[in-house]
Amino acid sequence: TVTQSEVDLLFSKKICSTKEIHPEFCLFSSTPRNILQDSMIPACLCMFEDLGMIEKWKIPKEVLVRFLLMVRKGYRNPPYHNWIHAFTVAHFCYLLFKNARITHQLRDIELLALFVACLCHDIDHRGTTNSFQVSSGSTLAALYSSKGSVLERHHFAQTMCILNSEGCNIFKNLTGKDYKDVFILIRDIILATDLAHHLRILQDLRKMAELTKSVLRNHTVKYLVVKMNRGLIYSEFFSQGDKEKHMGLTPMEMMDRERAVIPKLQIDFLDAIALPVYRLLSSLLPETQEVLETVLSNRQKWQKAQEDGDYVYRPVATSDKEIQ
Ligand SMILES: Cc1nc2ccc(C(=O)N[C@]34C[C@H]5C[C@H](C[C@H](C5)C3)C4)cc2n2c(-c3ccccc3Cl)nnc12
Ligand SMILES: [Mg+2]
């Protein structure tokens, strides 16, 4: 839990404007990396305010502050799947709301669920994958492996725990149907972040996009677009590969620091997972074209690094205690 003094400290501050957070806060070109870590919670308050969600859903400010502090505390500190990652995804979702006509395509309750799900979608991530939960016989696997999406079910369960904690239910003033719907939507969105299902969802979305350009009108954008990272994901992947070797298992190539060629892995990931998302997004929301261009230029950089055969990033083994 969080202390009342932690809440009071943030509650007493006026909710600032996005400009005060960072001059380019509302532009796709801005990256949250240049947002100071201890201004991320004020930035979340400012995004909720700016999106009109505090007013629309009568969210008491003190409850929102306590909820955000609990969400931040709910994250561990692996190299990639940490609170900064959650904030980055929520910030990108905010940019979609601000810069693309997504807010006219989705119902208000879907916008609320999507934004909150971004903040919560990886809560208590251990820096290892679903298959590692099963192969290491983790407690999460014992709880959820019969249903699949082990980590994502845990992220949702942790989110529900926070919302059910004293003074943290930001949805307490929602009416009957909205109250029921928001939890169902958040559950669907967080479960949909299991990349194993992503490829099917992408297929379905492509079909829907063929049918009507207004696909966003009928279906919440059920999976989260990812911002390109500085390869921190490979610190996590290689730590998991080290663990798998200690367990006598053979890690996937992308998790084996002896075999992985990062430029090649990044190009494979962009081609198989990220670019199809951004192409679909820019076909549905033309305002996101610049994001697609950024990702394509990222791909070119990796292509060049591969041709030059130079290692742009070779993460060092992180200690177990950090990941656990
Ligand atoms: C740079 C980068 N590379 C990435 C390369 C690969 C994978 C990945 O999980 N691959 C798969 C490949 C098959 C079929 C399924 C299940 C498993 C077997 C593992 C997916 C993710 C990568 N990733 C993520 C990311 C991490 C976790 C969740 C969602 C995302 Cl998007 N964020 N950044 C990156
Ligand atoms: Mg996840």
Tell me what the structure shows:
The protein has helices at residues 4-11, 18-21, 40-50, 53-56, 61-74, 83-99, 102-105, 108-120, 130-135, 139-144, 150-163, 176-191, 195-211, 215-218, 232-246, 262-284, 289-308, 320-323. The protein is an all-alpha fold and 324 residues long. Helix 13 (195-211) packs parallel to helix 16 (262-284). It is globular, with a radius of gyration of 20 Å. It binds ligand EOJ and magnesium ion. Magnesium ion is lined by residues 121-122, 151, 193.
Summarize the structure.
The chain is mostly helical and 324 residues long. It contains 18 helices and no strands.
Labels describing this entry:
mainly alpha, 18 helices, binds ligand EOJ
Poorly predicted tracts of residues: 214-228, 317-324
Q: Please bin the fraction of helical residues.
A: 55-70%
Q: Specify the overall morphology.
A: globular
Q: Sheet bearing the most strands, described?
A: none
The total strand number stands at 0
End-to-end Cα distance, whole Å, is 20 Å
Helix run count: 18
Strand content: under 5%
How big is the Rg?
20 Å
Whole-number mean pLDDT: 88
Bound molecules: the ligand Cc1nc2ccc(C(=O)N[C@]34C[C@H]5C[C@H](C[C@H](C5)C3)C4)cc2n2c(-c3ccccc3Cl)nnc12, magnesium ion
Please identify the structural class as seen in this structure. mainly alpha
Order of helices and strands: HHHHHHHHHHHHHHHHHH
